[in-house]
TrEMBL record:
Domain Ribonucleotide reductase large subunit C-terminal: from-to ranges: 153-688
Organism: Nocardioides scoriae
Protein name, per record: Vitamin B12-dependent ribonucleotide reductase
The entry's keywords: Cobalamin, Cobalt, Disulfide bond, DNA synthesis, Nucleotide-binding, Oxidoreductase
Cofactor(s) recorded in Swiss-Prot or TrEMBL: adenosylcob(III)alamin
Amino acid sequence: MTETVSSTGTARGRRKGLKIEQTFSTPGVHPYDELTWERRDVVQTNWKTGATVFEQRGVEYPDFWSVNASTIVTTKYFRGAVGTDSREWSLKQLVDRVVKTYVAAGLEHGYFATEKDAQVFEHELTWLLVHQYFSFNSPVWFNVGTPSPQQVSACFILSVDDSMDSILNWYKEEGFIFKGGSGAGLNLSRIRSSKELLSSGGTASGPVSFMRGADASAGTIKSGGATRRAAKMVVLDVDHPDIVEFVETKMKEEDKIRALRDAGFDMDLGGNDITSVQYQNANNSVRVSDEFMRAVEDGTGFGLRARDTGEVIETVDARALFTKISEAAWACADPGLQYDDTINDWHTNPETGRITASNPCSEYMSLDNSSCNLASLNLLKFLKDDDTFDAPLFAQAVELIITAMDISICFADFPTEPIGETTRNYRQLGIGYANLGALLMAMGLGYDSDGGRSMAATITSLMTGVSYKRSAELAAVVGPYAGYARNADAHKRVMRKHQAANDVVRTLHGTDAAVHKLATQAWADVQKLGEKNGFRNAQASVLAPTGTIGFMMDCDTTGIEPDFSLVKFKKLVGGGSMQIVNQTIPRALKKLGYQTESIEAIVEFIADKGHVIDAPGLKTEHYEIFDTAMGARSLKPMGHVRMMAACQPFLSGAISKTVNLPESATVEEIEDVYLQSWKLGLKATAIYRDNCKVGQPLSDGKSDQAKKDQGQSVDAPVVETKVVEVHKPFRKRLPKSRASLTTSFTVGGAEGYMTSGAHADGELGEVFLKLGKQGSTLAGVMDAFSIAVSIGLQYGVPLETYVSKFTNLRFEPSGMTDDPDIRMSQSLMDYVFRRLALDYLSFEERSMLGIYSAEERQRHLETGSYEPLEETGGAAELKIAEAAPQEKGTGKDVDNRADDLETKDTHGAEAREVPAKVTSHEARTSAELLEKITGSAIDSPLCMTCGTKMRPAGSCYVCEGCGSTSGCS
């Protein structure tokens, strides 16, 4: 551990500084010198034309870093113009840029007892980073040590008052934050409702009307070139008179999206017409009170209060309002709930102000106009060879990381002065972790089990306890946070609440008992040191999504999430990818006592089926250990809630996580999730029901219920358009010999072939579709359909008319395709006519229909224009090549042999893997792999950067292909 000793400060005379013990790194040896480094080529190419989109050759990484990790770090975090001498080319440069900035600031501000301690701190921090034990959040890697503003925070909370000046300032501040790629949240409850009067005598607009302007601003900045969509959270108190309008905003817009989609408009995520609807750039949450929740339980009335006077101006049925909130969440996943009294009961600074809002992912909850910088530990790194958790080593890592995070506030820049002032005065930190799901599986513990929850609770308690212990030690060195004095009693009360929660944890096995013992000692030290020194930080911990940085650490699971699926994709040196079974599964099976032969048989079964049901030799009581977020044995909704409840009492902030429900879930089930979350002490809950959003692939458009869900009338009459014949039709027949194009395709697992023939001038004249075996009903129907379309084309029906009528037609099979230009299709007809449009219509004609190639979509992201340019490519795909990766004695590229059961790293060591299926350019993400195994589509959006399917990470989504996230990083 570390201790404090006296040293001479630069401006305060005699003072104490930290004495750093060398635990991770080796005395006398630099951390870099302990590793084997290798050079790799990172090349991003257009798979269709071969045009290079991104290229940096000879980048340097430790040999144990995966191709995926090095690719994402190179493309996301290396600074300097590509192709110039100023461009970073080694992980050493990146880590040095950040760590040396932290150490220099620590020396300047008196954190270390001696320069030797500062050097030990530098080596310890460097060792932890290069060995992937933890990572700072993305803004640190983007900005620290560069000429750019030294912004270290990803999470911001803004404030808006009931005045036009404040509202317009909200738009401005949000815009600057979005411009920097970060997200912000705020509470609009101070704004008068549309049922209240202005001082001039008119009626107020209400907060929902001002949300329109903010949403448009966020959408504009997003489309103006940001690398990810603007992330924002909008909160409204449940007693606001406009609460019903707020609750219904996104639900009504979802109905509008359905209507526009059915009329032929492109309403997919990132589609050409999606900007015509409102409120799509924010997560919405209702801030509920204990008073309201008790009224829901009792079935009594609840008062909605005027903003200026506080008087009740309307009384509503609490249960009916609660049901309306749940109905909206069922329909479109918004709003979530934030539990106001629980949040403020754990608030360390109530004398300064209440907590009214959160960041977009809902894990950071603190004062208005504040920010939080995050860092996350890779829990699996602390699992020892005997499958026990190394609690002392974990505690020492937490001490070092918290120290670094606090130092960063000394030099950090902030987007607005109020945010900077609040952050410097309260110094909120957000340490957290990733890989919990993988850790529990490797230890043989089910995610939804008492043992799994006990382990997670004790680790979280130890993390936060050690963080506040170090915060109290820092207070002795550099002083408590500026707002501590006025909040001292409240802060110490919350520390006692954390300690009391730790005391009631009941451990179930030796490993969690050892962790709990150390956590108990940490909380005792917190009370003693905090009473003496105060605390350096108002907040210490959150559980964030850990999207991009999770890939940087080669984590199997993000944040507090369970494993997404039992099979994953792995990028290969030299390009392409292969599907493998999670490497934690063999370790878990060994922990459970299975022999080598049984483990191999079970792993091969999982590789083929994607789940453990009926796996040979696997005991049914062990099934729960391998439950995942998706798939045949997916976790029940309350399994997610109970895990969050186990960890919540040991966090300063909250948890970024979405409770996933199946498409068949009812409104009553959502009500129960929200109600139980409140009873179990969560600070916030968000839900997502499969396929509740338009643009997702699982709706069955043929059923009456699906039509109702999509806002369509079951008995709607067919509107016929009468066409007056002006000229007698003339059939333009094709020549006996004509140019044709045959395309093989897959839509939602259904395979087929399309042959299209053209006239001499290139105009499409016939289409033939091959689906099903000859003589089958499907084959006969498709033959008849092909003839009908072909005759129509020859009689002069424009192809664009067919395209406008048949695209967006929804029926099964639907889902992912193997066509890089059309990654998602709502039906076979939707795919066929989009493909024909791309093959035979001009750019201008397709633009009118909102149909673009992957090349054109990529160009729009980079330049803001779909217009074709010379020497540009289409859909970009990452291709990673090692510098001269050859097998000894053969001259062959080792990892280009896609059908080989072995892969080799670049220094010759063999790593045996059991592939589930070998692919080159098909199964590119875990989400897509799970779709291929289960035969059903995964309900998540496509990445707006590279077009591959994303997967959930907390309440956001993360792309495994390029590291982009849909919200906070």
